[in-house]
Amino acid sequence: MQQPSAGIPGIITTDSAGRIDIMNEAAGTILGTGYRMAVGRQVKEIMPDSRLTDVLWTDRADRVENLTVHGRSLVVSRTPVYEGNRLSGSIFVLQDVTGLDVIHDELKKMRDDKNELEAIFDASFDEIFVIDGKGVTQKINRAGESYYGVSTEELIGRNVLELEEQGFFSPSVTKMVFDKKERVTISQQTRSGKELIVTGNPVFDDQGNIVRVVINSRDVSELTELRRRLLETERLAEAYRRQVMELESDKSTRKEIVARSADMLRLLGMVDRVAGVDSTVLITGESGVGKGIIASRIHRLSPRGEGPFVSINCGAIPENLLESELFGYAPGAFTGAQKAGKKGLIQMGEGGTVFLDEVAELPLSMQVKLLHVSQQKSVTPVGGTTPQQVDVRFIAATNRDIKQMVREGEFREDLYYRLNVIPLEVSPLRQRHEDIVPLAEHCLDAINKRYGMSKKLVPETREMLLRYNWPGNVRELENIIERVAVTADAVEIMPAHLPGYILNHLSKQNNKIYISDLCPLDDAVQDVEKQLLEKAYERYGNTYQMAEALGINQSTVVRKMKRYMSGSQRKPGPRRG
Length: 577
What we know:
A six-stranded antiparallel β-sheet has the order 7-6-11-10-9-8, sandwiched between helices. With 577 residues, the protein is of the alpha/beta class. The chain has four domains: 10-123, PAS domain (Beta-Lactamase); 127-219, Beta-Lactamase (2-Layer Sandwich); 257-427, P-loop containing nucleotide triphosphate hydrolases (Rossmann fold); 433-569, Helicase, Ruva Protein, domain 3 (Orthogonal Bundle).
């Protein structure tokens, strides 16, 4: 028989039911059984006649002398162990009669270690549940009380199947661990309404039998509720965002595109129809008619409306930079290039719309590459060899006669037909008189809001706006309205506030001077004289040519200028004689 190591006592700890929790090797040797085999068994199974567990009932530490086991005479110290005021188990120290100091020190260390482990055990935020090989609850820390709504004492010593049947938790991870003989993680509901993430870890003996299941549980109820609320909030936010986008899109498109004429109403109806498809659109029309706004509306109303809208002015990019700007470049493509390379403007439109404004200004060499992109839906960066797929919709625009350019060989015919799948023509402003005043009022409203003003157009001014032919189209109208709104010194914008070139143009149409209201005749004559002198001086810059143009003497010009014009007004004009 193996002899115990000299001076090392045999030590056994039990729970309150007399089951062995811990046994060291020396105790196993003394008792003639493997210390691993003894854990979890009753003391009386190993030492039937010892009555060692009486200490659990007497609740008193004592010493048993002359206890004979396997021919050895032992002195056994029995000590009950408490957690607070509750008996939680016992400690037995088996020793020959020597080495009492060593036993005392080791016993103290064992107690300290046990207390430390118990403190750690109870301090854990997560629940720790220890089940024996028969499914009986051995230990549970304080976190379990909040999980199950009962004290830990009500759970210890009860079988997990019984606890599951009574609804303390469902399902039982212990049962799954016994079935699968491996670690199992599940989601578990408790009768107090908690949602737990539970992991059961099996502990095996030397023969591969499960002797313990150690369960770690974390309360994720708040996280689950927060996640649910977050998802609901995101869902509502997305719904509201879509509603706002729809309202804003409808509002912005209606505000930006003021249409009363039949031509524009027909055009907007076509825009709304083509927005729902991915076909390429070619918008033609004079400069300033609003081709960019039409393109923006098509994008916003399309399924790509939430994607990027990349506007490229093909006539504003230097020819030597066009290819790298449109298609990007690979790392190290040329001296001064970014090390990581650079995305092109077309790639930046991924998932959205690329608007090619002034597309007729592209050189023929670039037209070939654009044709390839529109056909293959891929771009090859400058210096690269691998095409990169792109998902974009192209909308092009030009103010040139692109058909004539095709006939003269200035624009590729194949690219023209590629872009001109859906042609849209925006009429010049002079052909849609019904839009002029509403557009002017719309612009003035925006300016009033922007600057906190309350300017308004009088009927005579509206009439003059209608009679002008607007060669600069909507862009010119917006410019003029902002100019007169800012510079007019009265709330009412009179015809006299309009730029001189518009008044001259209208005056030449019927050789008639326009007046905004009745006034004394002398005042009117003086006002006309002053305006004529100002315009003559602006044009000629000297009194001799002014006198010739006005049909009066040079001395008369000098006299009237002294009367009507200050020195600051008499600046040199563009021409001198």
